[in-house]
Structure formats: structure tokens, C-alpha cells
Design a protein that fits this description.
heterodimer; A: mainly alpha; elongated; B: mainly alpha; 2 domains; globular
């Protein structure tokens, strides 16, 4: 309930700030335009510049009214039952992602598939750390090669993960296990986001979950898509991650 | 460890991270205050504050282009100083010897810079020639071509329209007077409102989407300080000649690059290639295209700088643009771009360029010998790179 109030306050604050900003832009353009037209008696060139400013003020006024109408429509849209459910599930994944993988015991982890993935991820992190420790600070400086970024451990991790996921699909993974595996792969990249050594390959590995998307149901796909969207904005997504996100969104709409 | 000790450790580490985050801003403030005292307040005279940005316009423009190259893995472009000379020389010769309109000459000059960028980008991205070698060759090649175009002479620029496009001061009749350019203050207040509104809306959007946010008090204190700086600076400009068109060019370039690097997926690709090229490929990006784009954008910015510098100085000679590449590289590293690639920001480059500019101008006003100015700049650059290497090694980043 408190969270809803906070979001409503945010909406209200957002409307006030946006409106004030838009009023300032229109008034400033109009102010400059009127002054320039007034001065056109001394120099006729100012007339046209003034007219351009006034035209811009009118254009922005119309555009801002349109934006305000669209925002009003969005604010008054009722929330669907599904999206409320997704919000709850989203929190569950977030909590999962915020916990340190190392602190989870095997019994906390949902299924054998995730246990197998944990081994691959832990092996990758330790090998990458070792490569970093062995390297000198000058390696990788100013575009030079043979830095820890070029260690074979990154590609080995990707290949091992790909093989493992393919084996899951070949054997026939259950719906719940597929959900756990997808959640694990996405949340792992989120947890290691600040580690510039392992994050890029973990992020690329998100592309490997594509064959598993068909295994989860619509509400699960929506939960993952929401979690993904709240952690990686549109500008953060590279083509493969964007493709996965779109596949999740399509899946989430299939059975609703 | 007790709860109290843990809380104290957390507080210390968060204070440490804030200090690290704002280290360059703190350095800028310290250097600015130091030179203000050293020059007995002459550094903050309206004319000097106006010149601080205009004299460093080329560093800001080149720095933005250089950031994309550095992001791709610490690569640099050594040819930009020579490109500045060549493009300036071509523009000056066309203005002096052809009857072409100034705007067309500007377009042609930028197009030639684009061709240079395409050539270098193709060689680096698709032929895999190391950027250092390719741009080193370009440095000699374009400097030589520039001198050939100039016929080893100094060519003055007298075309008024060309000069107006880059160097004129904005004077709005009915608002600005001889003593006070009110338009500069209005512009400053508008900019402050935009910064404040942007911060508030950004925080609201982040909270709505559940993204991590920095401390609210800290964010609003920062915005208040930035707003105060913008308004004070605009008042100082109003007391001199107002806002120069060159300042608008700089702001436009900074805003475009800041938007590309922080708000677009295209900008993210430069960070991704610098992070891990193979992972970027697996994420569906062609790294060759990223290198190509970085060096193309760099050459376009070098072309624009060539035009800006030619207009500001009013002439072009064979030494125009000498060591400009070092200023651009310096501003990037001082501004926090990593020599390993994958990290850096446009805001950092602006701070780095202003810091370098303040040191340059402070030393000039103080009357320090030109040779010593190079020594000081070299030491500052070295310190910035050493800081990057040491902090990267400590935090385990690559």
C-alpha cells in the first residue's frame, strides 16, 4: 500500500515538474519571439527570426498538450490482474538476484539443473580471477592484447553453458526447472554487473536461454520479462538480449 | 565483526566511493581555487572565464570523439591534430580562392573529414591494422597534405559569414544592452531549469522502474551546485560579450555525445567492445562496425574542430592543430576514461578538458614559461593514467 502511495506521489511530482518545464519552454520561446518582432522596425531580418520563434512556441504548445493527454490516458489505465501478479513475482526474482549465489546452499536451489549451472558459473569466476591475478597491470593498456579479457576462460564458459543448456533441452526440461534456469542465468549477470571482467560474457550468455523460453508458461515469461526490463533498459540491450526480451514478451502474451 | 564495526566499515567504504566518484570534480575545484589565488583573482574575470571555454572548444569537441575510440579498448587516434590542420587549410583555401558560399565550404570540409574517417575506420575495423600504427601514419600524412594545401604559408580567413557561424556573440535586440547581455542570463537560467527537471524526472523514472538510485540528498546538493555554477557563469558571460555561437556548437556536440553514450543501444556497443570483444560478437554486435563508427566519428569531430579553430584564430598555418591529439587524449584520461577501455563518460571529459584548460590559462595568466606548462600538463596526464592503472588493479577490473 505504501509503495502504491509512493508511486502515486511520484506520478504527481512528475506531472508538476514536466508541466512547469513545458510552460517555461513555451514562455521563453514566445518571449524571445515577441521581442524580436518588436525590434523588426529597426531591422527587418528580426521579423522572420521572431516569427520562427513564435511558430516554435505554438508547435511546442500543441506538442505538449498532446503529450499531457497521452500521459493522462496512461495514468488512468487500470492495472490488470496479471500485471499485479507479475509485480509480486518480479520482487521474488529481485530478492533471488540480490542474494549472493555463494551464500545459497544446494537445498535452497530449486533443481538439479541449476546446481549444474552453479558449478559452471563458479568455475568461470574462479578462472577469470586467476587470469586477472596472473596478469600484469600493463596488459590490455592502450589497446594492447593479451589482457585477462582475452583469456580462453570466457569462451570456455560460454561453450560449457551452451552444451549444458542444449543437453537440458534434449533430455526434456520441466517447466519449473526451465523457469529456475532462466532466472538463474539472468540474475547471475545482474549480480556480477559491476565486475567488468566476467559481466560481458555472462550478459552474452543470456542469448542462450532462447530455446528454453517455450518451456515456461505465459505468467512466468511475463515475470522474467518484467525483471529483465527493470534491470536492463532498452539502451542496455544488445541485439541478442533484445531478441530474448522480445521472445519473452511474445511468450507472455500467447496464453493470456 | 560486530554490527557497529560493520556499519562503520560500510560508512567508510561509501564515503570512499563518493570521494573516488567525485575525485576529478574535487581536483578541478582545488586547481581552480589555487590559480584564482595565484593570479590574484584575474582567472575569474568575465573575459577570462569566457575564454576558458572558447580557447578549449577544440579539446571538448575532440575529446568527445576520442572517448568513443578509447571506449573500444583504450585505443587512441593520433592523426586528429593533423586532420585539424588539413581541414582548416582546405577551408581557408576555398574561402580565399573560390567564390563558393561559406556554408557550402563548411559542408564540403566536414565531408572530406568524413572521407578521412571512413578510410581510417575501414583500415582499423576491417583490415585490422592496429589503431596506433594506422593513426600514426595518418598523423604524418595529413600534416604533410595540410602543408601542401597551404603551400607552407599562413592563410588568413576574412569571410564574415564563416566567422559569424563560429565566433559571433549572440546579441538579441530589445533584451541585450551594451553593458549587460541579459540573453546570457536567460540562457543560463533555462539551462539550470533543464538540469533540475532532468534530475527530478530521471529519479522518478528510476524509482518507478525499480532501478538503483544514488542518495537523494547527495543528488539534489549536486544539482544545486551545478545550477549555481551555470547561473554564476552565465552572469559573468553577460558582463562580457554574452554567449558565443562557439559555445552553442560545444554544447550541441556534448549533448549529442552524452545522449549517444548514455541513452542509446548504439552507444552501449562501444562500451561492450571495450569490455570484451568476443562477448560482444556473441551478443550480436559486429565489432568491426563499432571500430569503424568510432574512427569515423573521431574524424568528423576533428573536421569540426579544424573549422572552429580556423575561425577562432582567424588564420591557418602548417602548425595549426599541433599536439591537439594529446590534449584530447589527456582530457579523456584526466576525466576518468579507462586506458583499458570499456569505461568513461562525456561528463568526465568535460571536467577533464576544463581542468586542463584551467591549468593552461592559470599558468598563462600567472606568466609561467610555455615550456614549464608542457611539463605540468605531462605530469597531470601521467598522474591520471597511473591512478587508472592502480585503481583498476586494486578493484580487480580489467
Amino acid at each position: 500500500m505504501g509503495n502504491n502511495n509512493s508511486i502515486q506521489n511520484d506520478d504527481l511530482r512528475s506531472v508538476i515538474v514536466k508541466s512547469l518545464f513545458r510552460v517555461v519552454v513555451v514562455v521563453a520561446l514566445g518571449f524571445f519571439g515577441i521581442n524580436l518582432i518588436k525590434e523588426s522596425a529597426s531591422d527587418s531580418r528580426f521579423l522572420w527570426i521572431g516569427v520562427v520563434f513564435i511558430a516554435a512556441a505554438v508547435f511546442f504548445l500543441a506538442y505538449f498538450v498532446f503529450l499531457a493527454y497521452r500521459e493522462y490516458q496512461q495514468m488512468t489505465l487500470p492495472k490488470t490482474e496479471n500485471s499485479q501478479e507479475a509485480e509480486v513475482n518480479n520482487d521474488a526474482i529481485k530478492n533471488y538476484a540480490e542474494d549472493d549465489i555463494d551464500t545459497k546452499s544446494d537445498t535452497d536451489i530449486a533443481c538439479d539443473e541449476v546446481v549444474a549451472l552453479t558449478v559452471i558459473y563458479e568455475d568461470y569466476i574462479s578462472k577469470a580471477s586467476l587470469a586477472k591475478e596472473k596478469s600484469s597491470p600493463m596488459e590490455g593498456l592502450f589497446g594492447s592484447k593479451s589482457s585477462p579479457k582475452d583469456s580462453p576462460c570466457h569462451e570456455d564458459f560460454y561453450s560449457a553453458l551452451k552444451d549444458k543448456l542444449n543437453s537440458f533441452v534434449d533430455v526434456g526440461i520441466s517447466q519449473e526447472s526451465a523457469m529456475s534456469v532462466i532466472a538463474y542465468i539472468i540474475s547471475s549477470s545482474t549480480i556480477h554487473r559491476k565486475d567488468t571482467l566476467v559481466f560481458p560474457m555472462m550478459y552474452a550468455a543470456i542469448g542462450l536461454i532462447e530455446p528454453l523460453i517455450d518451456k515456461v508458461d505465459a505468467s512466468q515469461a511475463m515475470t522474467i520479462a518484467d525483471f529483465f526490463e527493470s534491470n536492463y533498459s532498452k539502451s542496455d540491450r544488445l541485439p541478442v538480449q533484445e531478441r530474448v526480451y522480445k521472445a519473452l514478451v511474445i511468450r507472455s502474451r500467447e496464453e493470456t | 565483526m560486530s554490527e557497529k564495526a560493520k556499519a562503520l566499515k560500510n560508512r567508510n567504504s561509501s564515503a570512499g566511493s563518493i570521494l573516488k566518484k567525485y575525485s576529478m570534480v574535487i581536483a578541478l575545484v582545488v586547481v581552480f581555487v589555487f590559480f584564482t589565488f595565484l593570479t590574484e583573482g584575474r582567472l575569474i574575470l568575465p573575459q577570462n572565464l569566457s575564454n576558458l571555454l572558447l580557447q578549449n572548444a577544440y579539446v571538448l569537441v575532440l575529446g568527445c570523439g576520442m572517448l568513443l575510440c578509447i571506449l573500444t579498448g583504450g585505443n587512441v587516434d593520433l592523426s586528429i591534430g593533423s586532420t585539424v590542420c588539413l581541414i582548416g587549410a582546405l577551408a581557408a583555401q576555398m574561402l580565399a580562392n573560390t567564390g563558393l558560399p561559406a556554408i557550402l565550404i563548411i559542408v564540403i570540409s566536414i565531408a572530406i573529414a568524413g572521407v578521412i574517417g571512413i578510410a581510417q575506420g575501414w583500415l582499423i575495423g576491417y583490415v585490422h591494422i592496429p589503431p596506433f600504427i594506422c593513426t600514426l601514419a595518418g598523423m604524418f600524412l595529413f600534416r604533410g597534405l595540410g602543408r601542401v594545401v597551404l603551400d607552407s604559408k599562413t592563410i588568413p580567413i576574412q569571410n564574415q559569414l564563416y566567422l559569424d557561424i563560429f565566433t559571433r556573440y549572440i546579441n538579441i535586440p530589445g533584451i541585450d544592452t551594451e553593458d549587460l547581455k541579459v540573453s546570457a542570463i536567460i540562457f543560463g537560467v533555462l539551462a539550470a531549469i533543464i538540469v533540475t527537471a532532468g534530475t527530478i524526472l530521471g529519479r522518478i523514472k528510476k524509482r518507478k522502474n525499480g532501478y538503483a538510485m544514488e542518495n537523494g540528498t547527495l543528488a539534489y546538493i549536486r544539482v544545486a551546485l551545478i545550477d549555481a555554477l551555470i547561473v554564476v557563469y552565465s552572469i559573468q558571460l553577460a558582463n562580457y560579450k554574452g554567449i558565443s555561437v562557439m559555445l552553442l556548437w560545444i554544447i550541441a556536440v556534448i549533448l549529442i555525445y552524452a545522449y549517444i553514450t548514455s541513452k542509446t543501444a548504439f552507444g552501449r556497443t562501444f562500451y561492450a567492445v571495450g569490455g570484451n570483444e568476443k562477448a560482444t560478437k556473441l551478443s550480436g554486435i559486429d565489432p568491426r562496425r563499432v571500430y569503424f563508427s568510432a574512427y569515423l566519428s573521431m574524424s568528423l569531430m576533428a573536421g569540426l574542430s579544424g573549422l572552429l579553430v580556423a575561425a577562432r584564430i582567424g588564420s591557418v598555418n602548417g602548425d595549426s592543430g599541433s599536439s591537439y591529439e594529446m590534449d584530447a587524449i589527456g582530457s579523456c584520461f584526466i576525466g576518468g576514461a579507462s586506458a583499458y577501455g570499456g569505461s568513461g563518460s562525456v561528463v568526465g571529459i568535460v571536467i577533464g578538458a576544463i581542468l586542463l584548460g584551467t591549468i593552461n590559462q592559470g599558468m598563462s595568466i600567472y606568466g609561467l614559461d610555455n615550456n614549464w606548462q608542457y611539463v605540468v600538463k605531462g605530469v597531470v596526464l601521467l598522474l591520471a593514467v597511473v591512478f587508472d592503472v592502480v585503481s583498476n588493479h586494486k578493484t580487480g577490473k580489467s
